[in-house]
Records
---
Amino acid sequence: MGIGEEGEDGGYASAVDELNEQQSRLPHRKLGPLRHLSRSISPPPELFAKVNNKTTSNRVPVRELPPSTGYSRLLTKKQLADMAFSVRDLSKYLGTVKIKMRVRKILIITKIWDKATIIYTNQIVDWLLAIHEVMPNFTVYVEDVLKENELFNEKQLLSVDKSRRDRLKYWTSDLCEEHPQMFDLVITLGGDGTVLYTSRLFQRIVPPVLSFNLGSLGFLTKFDFANHQKIIHKMVDEGVIVSLRMRFECTIMKAIESKDKTTTRNLGSEILDTVESEVTHEPGKTYSILNDVVVDRGPKGTMCRAELYVDDDHLTTVEADGVVIATPTGSTAYSLSAGGSLVHPDIQGMLVSPICAHSLSFRPLVVPDNAVLRVGVPYGARTTVWCSFDGKDRIELNEGDYVTISASRFPFPMIQNKRLGSDWFASLRETLNWNQRQQQKAYTNI
């Protein structure tokens, strides 16, 4: 088990025991080890026995959904609230203790198109393979495309010691997708984009992530690579502080062509299940995102029109260049540029920020993390809209299509430098220069 040993101020296992005792009244919500968090807050089995339940986001029978579709959007309001409560409680506790890690398998993610970063990757791999006395019997995984890379120089790394041949291995995206629980630690070498790529790579279970800043901004990368040896030694000797960052689970719902050509279809009635008829939508791909989901006009030169629903209520009609739905982590990204508020990552919420809204009264707002948001293209809309997830995988939404957004069961565990989110305040000042200006001069007495 990668995490679960006692640390300086208590361990993860004791935190889990305490929370389990407090939450024993919540069925199927007991908290297991961090990398198996998905098991602790998965939906209860009885949910899958229900068909055409009014609490689901559409009229597709639950048991017919493929495993890749995701489940958060299928939870009842209470079940989603219980899940959010479990994650919040665990996140709060982990922010106040240090967890000692027993590291056996380390996965390194680097910017493979940046020559300097590949050289740094060679340096850290060489050092990790050399420190038997600190972390014996462990394996380092690097991306398979580096195997033949001259700058990474596999031949030089393996020539030092024969045992290195068994302890240097290569990962692929398929390996990370199919066996995420096999890794005890992820080290990223790059910037914020590398961290987002890590989130994209691990769509379900995410190992603890230690991020070294080798990028441009570095808002999410807390550690200086120049001190990587000291930082890793300290992490092993004293333990780490883990922050569970909220992620979204987003599912594309595609409209099914209706057999009844005479009836005018209404997106709101279909989303809220007020129409007793045949199945109206089928689920597409599901994405777990760390920053934001953006619904915008795409290449069109005119504004887009989309309907925004919160739970069972129609919130508003979006007539703008688009709308950003962001996590607290994503509040410092596109959402901030669109006029959204800065939100501390320990505040679990969902940020809604319009992009160049046609109405001046359409202002940003924050909704609870146990809400389910749906953004869709109404029937009769003049144009389609485009949807992107953490800036990737742009998908066109046609008439009747919508995207469902809810809190994910798989948060993103980031290793922090300081406790209680003080890292975040430091990043505001140092990377965004938040509220930096020349101080007002004092009066001069003549």
---
Amino acid sequence: MAGQGDETQPRFSPGVSEAATPTPTPATVPEGPVYAEPVDPWATAEAAAIAAGGQPGGYQPHPDPQGTWTVPGATEPTVEKRSRRRLALIIGGAVAGVTVIATAAAAFLLWPKFPALDYHALREVKQITPKIPFTSTFMDTEVYGERAFFAGVTDTGTLHTLAAETGSGDVLWENDNAGTAYSWKAMYAREKVLVLVSGVDPTTSRSRVVALSSEDGRLVWDKQLGSSDEIHLAADTVLWVDREAKKLTGLGMSDGTVEWSVDDPDATSVQLVTGIDDLTGPAGATGRPFTPAGGDKQRFVQIDSDRTVTVRDVHTGDVLQKRAEVASTGDKVAAHDGRLYVVEPGTTKRVFQYDLARFAETQPVTLYTAGDSEDVDQLTPCGKLVCFVVSTGYDGKADVVRAAGGEGAWDKPVAGVEELVAVGSNGLLAVGDEGTTLLVGGKEAWYRLGVTVRLDARNVLTFSGGLTSSVDDRELSGTHLGEESVNLGVLAEVRSGTCSWNTSTIACANEKGYVLHSFAD
């Protein structure tokens, strides 16, 4: 088992022992700034920044079947990741599932606040044909509450966007106000704006971040980013790591104005601190919440290459806590529910837990110490605990999912895990090459072929195959944890990798436009 291969090492009990050496030894500290791939705070994922032309760290709305997004200038991992094989599409019948949990255990899953959704067979709400035809270069959808947003690039390179009501499919607005760019990469919806991210133009080494009003589609703000800059989207604030100007800046989401700015000579990386409510609403395939909780007291951690970590207020930039010798910019970290989790780099690979409220005065707790041949990945908040994958070997056959950090810690062998997505306080989706395993309290509830995503803290939606940009069919099923799944029918001829959803409607791009389907009342 992980962490037990060397009998000469001191043993640590998850959640109770302090680190034998609270700060990593100097040999493990990388020299100079390192910009690694953003670590997904949900699975991932989906923490860190929208790199110029990339994705917001920690968030991947619609998985790209051709590869992952990286931060420009990032150093590639020294250990090659296992390749994700395309998930098998099940032809005919309902989405396959294997239930292995007893009825008594299933009753434990029920939670009055999140009852079973009133699932029904898929009903087409509306086919939406944009006024201007778009190409397959870039297409995306976002659902925020009861509003769906759609985007596609025309043959002139212009980004065409529109918004519609999810219940009726009525188009609220449609325009080309985002303008043109060398390429377009991502779209993210917030309460007041729709944020659109371009790729880096190789002739200028610049990218664009554009915000349109969610109400009427007018252009609200437009920012130029350097090739190494990052942005991070909180609920109502944009954190901009401006590496050219050496500034860390907070922009108002609704108008793009500078709310605060501090000097940042050390090439910071940033991690938003998520909360329990971020694990209870609709989320993408890597766990990115479509409607992040936010709040007046949202925090983030600023990580410098000299291993100093600073806790700041999202809305003011004020320093709340600070500590040296914690983590560097390329380390695997997650910040959730008042705690910071750090995977120690180098050969030791301990998982540390820090209390952000008493960051400066308390010692970290060692949650896990990896064995000599083990690696720790997919650091993911899961209720009051943190979950991660311990791997031994390249093929993933010996993967173990662990939950640590307090009462109810557990471990469970699950082969080939590629993503971890929390479902409420004690559910966890372990997504692999060909299917998804639901774990509840460390016990396997079921395994299903395809990709399963979160609708709320007790309801999930399963696609019968991988999520891709190609036009294809996907069977859907809805499940309230602890109950039998409901076959919803076939989502026909859609680009499943563009789909997004709330608890009743799914929006997707198709061959020529977009389509809305209802799956619950």
---
Amino acid sequence: MSVHVKPSSNMVDIRSQNDSEYDKKFEQDPGHRCGTGASTPSSLSDYITSDADDSSDGRCAAPFTLRSIETQLVLTRDATPTDLREMVKRCKEMVMESAECSEERKWLVRRLIELRLRAQELREVSVENLLETCVILGHHLAPQKNHAVTYGPIYCDNCSAAVWTMLQSWYMCNDCGFCCHAKCLTATCRVCAHIVASEAGGYTFTKDICPERGLSAQLYRCAECNASITFKAAWIEPRLCDYTGLYYCQRCHWNTTAPIPARIIRNWDMEPRKVSRAAAQLLEILEQRPVLNLEQLNPKLFTLVPDLSLVKKLREELQMIKRYLVFCPNADNEGLPWRAGLRSHMVENSGSYAIKDLIDLQNGTLIEEIRAAHDAMRKHVAENCDLCRARGHLCELCGNDEVIYPWDAGSFSCPECSTVYHRACWAKRNHHCSKCSRIQKRLALNQWQGDGNLQVSTQIDETKDILNLKYTLYCAEGPSVNYIISGQCYVCLVTGEGEGSFRASIT
């Protein structure tokens, strides 16, 4: 609601009068000077009409005793905040030196108010210019003025002081959560943890647990801000980061605790340890990223942790079930497999893990999620969907009519052609896949019939085992050699001589 105040009738616009008229009026009516009229300017721009215009002159005249110093408090359009601070300071001194309830003090107080209003306008303009996203050392710092925070107090990552979110202007990085006051922007010396994680591709320390080098290797200085630290003074006590093994000052190390990846991978130790602010932000970013390949980092962990081997088995079965679901329109309508209530990387592959996965595995949450998704996806393929069920397999070794799938406990999938057999039938045939044999025979027959240099005097029956037939090869460039049928002469391939042409006869 805006209130419009009608100017008092006793205010004089001296711009419409010349100096002589003003002097006569001043001498005749000294009480006419502005000492009682109230002023509520809506904007200081109403007072500024030229390059050097005294805003008080538009409202009341300066007392005669202040004419000599009036130029020191002139308000101009190009006045800087520094100039305004100097004029405010000078005006306050003059107010204190003037007599109480005098016309001089009243005029000075009015001028002081106008100067402060102008300073406030300049601050608002500068704040509007500052309220833009700033990029510093990879941080995308977005302004958070008048931002209400409900999850706890906020502290500046540069000065460690509290941030009054409703009163102060402050910034927060959109990528790593780095927070700082607006006045502390220039003091930022920490590279954005999101940039560090992206460049490293994951965790830097996964083999060595707390690779401490000693404070002397750091020249007794903080690893981040380069501040001097020593064990002799309590107020600058060095603090060790359990992730990087480096020492930090109290401003860069707030005793924040977090699980250490190296301790989890090597010792299956989930206990949180004290880390620096930079390490805490990095670990928070990478906590849910599947960047750990446990098969390469520590394969013995699957033997020592039974639940981990069970999760590995379930994830491998999920990969088999996914091959059915990705081609099923009914599964897509049901949101399978991507919206099965499971973390996306659990469906995409079976080898990568996140720190969050290992922590949830320890408390039993992860196994419940995987089992629920596994049961829902398996039930869709084996029971609910006719299209997926029609893609099942029949064991051609025993001729049983039972439909089997690769993830069944009693079935085995050929690693070459993915044909599914009963595990017992596969063992009886000495791990020999009949489909792979047929494929090899067809390839060998096509290669034998398509070679124009072969002269064969007899007809080969398709039912014969071509791979066991031997041919006598007569190479035009070398001696004869017994050789399984192929596209070139073995001797020519080894020596690099000749074209490798030959004729063959069945032995």
---
Amino acid sequence: MEGGGVSDVMTKADGPVVIAAGGTGGHFFPAEALADALVARGYRVALMTDARAGRRTSGVFATADQFVLPGAGVAGRGPVRALKGGLALLRGARQARTIMAKIRPSAVVGFGGYPSVPPLLGARLLPASVRPAIVLHEGNAVLGKANAFLARFADGIGTSFATVAGLPAGARVRLTGMPVRPAIAAMAGEGYEPPGEPPDGLIRLLVWGGSLGARVFSDVVPEALSLLPLEIRERVTVTQQVRAEDLERVRTAYAAYGIASRLEPFFSDVASLMREAHLVIGRAGGSSVAELEVAGRPSVLVPLPVAASDEQTANARALEGVGAAWLMRQDTFTPDALSALLAMMLTDTGVLTAAADAAAELARPDAAERLADLVEANLPGGGLRGAASGAYSGAPSGAGNGSGTGPGEDRPATSSSSFPFIDSSTPEEARP
């Protein structure tokens, strides 16, 4: 256990909001955004995470209590490894329960993935008199396995997508959107500038693949660009995330094709790269999709084929369905197919502008505030706002759409498979 300065003497209403997140950036960036929003409202936060994420030394959690819990994934493993993973999760849940019995959190918020299981299960195991509110956030269009297990205990579930498959009947669900990093949120409403006119207008492509599966982009994208007509190819410049072991061969390929490129295993300046990009090619994890929406950028999405619930395909279909992206399954993501698609859209850049506009229509740059509203609505007395005003509705200001069923309202899921939200504005692999 890591952390310090916590008091054993707290009331349920005074306790911190525990945020359960770990692993890759796709789960951690939204958690940090929510923590920032809650701290700005006067709440204390604490972090429960896993060994992969470890102790945070920067950002909002750097000065918060932090607890590293045991745990391991279960999905997709053999029987022995699954059993060991399950036992580790149970040990983590017991440890989380012991910690929470001392710090008395007011709420526990989980962001999916196995690191969220021990804290939320531990919270559920507390006596009802001291049990904190349990809130989940689902970042994909299919309920993840961890959230599917935890949803039965949740007081509220925030979602990134207007329809989420797998929600249990009766779940209290609110469309919040996916919290994104402040630098990305700042891009909301900036608009999209398509590539300039030939022959001099550059075409800037951004290619990312996250920590898993990036190799397919290294294998396919350079050759696809080499097949473009010369009048298009000579205008293209590529910024691409490439695994360290593939850097030299990909750099050599682009040089041989006469294509300007910037290649790195990791980019820290994602917002500036997104701002410059005319088209993004990448995976369809929940955080990546949300950032494309907020930035208002057209994209070619290649879902990770080994995702546990095929959630990335569902995410990509949500964008493709409104004309905001092009979905290519990995088995059809070939140089010839990608080149033909790029030739079409780079010849008539109006299709890029239309896709960018459609993506921006899906954006919820205030998702962190919406999710903070959901957390507050489930605190005793409506949280600090409720205590100050005497009542708190939990709905963001102006959220209604005129029908009394605005996106800020909690609504029960109507079936075990999906929940259609009423919102007229709405049609993990890790991000880099």
